[in-house]
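Final report, Chapter 2: Outcomes

The project's central promise was a pipeline that accepts a single protein chain and returns its three-dimensional structure in a standardized token representation, suitable for archiving and comparison. That pipeline is now operational. To close this chapter, we reproduce one record exactly as it appears in the project archive, with the input sequence first and the structure output second.
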Amino acid sequence: MSYAPRVILHLPLSNESLLDEFVEKCLRDKVALIAVVGEGAARIEDIIDELVVGDGSDRERFVATTSHSNETVEEVLEFAGIWTDEQNRPVQIVRL
């Protein structure tokens, strides 16, 4: 199953080591936005950014990320819903 173009990563994570595979799948699926919601969202967003950028040699690796530590899932769903997507494709909530 592919990820939707706009993904909300709902914290807490069951296992932080799942992030690497999640990020790689998001890149393969051409996810445009990963919005992280929950306590510690800024730290997880930073980890995702590091996984995406890597050593910086591949400029094709890009996904926008945002963190939302003090917002509800509903608020982030609304935010992600207005994120630019010309085809108005769905937003997906993911738990790892």
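Archive annotation: Residues 6 and 91 are 5 Å apart (CA to CA).
This record, like all others produced under the grant, will remain available to the consortium after the project formally closes.
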